[in-house]
Amino acid sequence: MLKGIPAILSPDLMKTLMEMGHGDEIVLADGNFPSASNAKRLIRCDGHGIPELLEAIMQFFPLDTYVDRPVALMEVVPGDPYEATIWKEYEKTIGSTISIEYVERFAFYERARNAFAIVATSEKELYANIILKKGVI
Questions:
Q1: Which helix (H) or strand (E) holds 118?
Q2: Which residues are catalytic?
Q3: Torsions phi, psi of 111, nearest 5?
Q4: What is the Cα–Cα distance from 27 to 113, expressed in whole angstroms?
Q5: Are 61 and 17 in contact, with CB atoms under 8 Å apart?
Q6: How would you classify the pairing of strands 42-45 and 117-121?
Q7: Residue-wise pLDDT tens for the chain (137 aa)?
Q8: Domains located in the chain, CATH noted
Q9: Of 28, 78, 91, 135, whose Cβ has the fewest other Cβ atoms within 10 Å?
Q10: pTM of the predicted model, to two decimals?
């Protein structure tokens, strides 16, 4: 244990966040996301939801200020009446001044395959997947 590090951040996740460089992306994946089959590096965060994980990560993680939208969400599939209310929680955590990109489902999968790592959570909300692009300090 270390002082000031939220317990939700495992040693593997902290190591991964530190190994990432400028422009690298990390996916926080909901429980339905095909994490294992798409990940270069898979980090398990079972038993946790994305909002509390995102809050802990954002204490340490600089978002990329050299791109227009350093945060990406999987958009709702056309025709699906589901309203992704969890996105409002994300906006509170990352700040309302950060522009968010909404990515079509299969394009999101492709982008996730190219991400530095995927963090598999137990998040139950649909369309809760989020990609963060790392910036500089």
A1: strand 117-121
A2: 22, 64, 109
A3: -65, -40
A4: 10
A5: yes
A6: parallel
A7: 789 999 999 999 999 999 999 999 999 999 999 999 999 999 999 999 999 999 999 999 999 999 999 999 999 999 999 999 999 999 999 998 999 999 999 999 999 999 999 999 999 999 999 999 999 99
A8: 25-133 (3.40.1650.10)
A9: 78
A10: 0.96
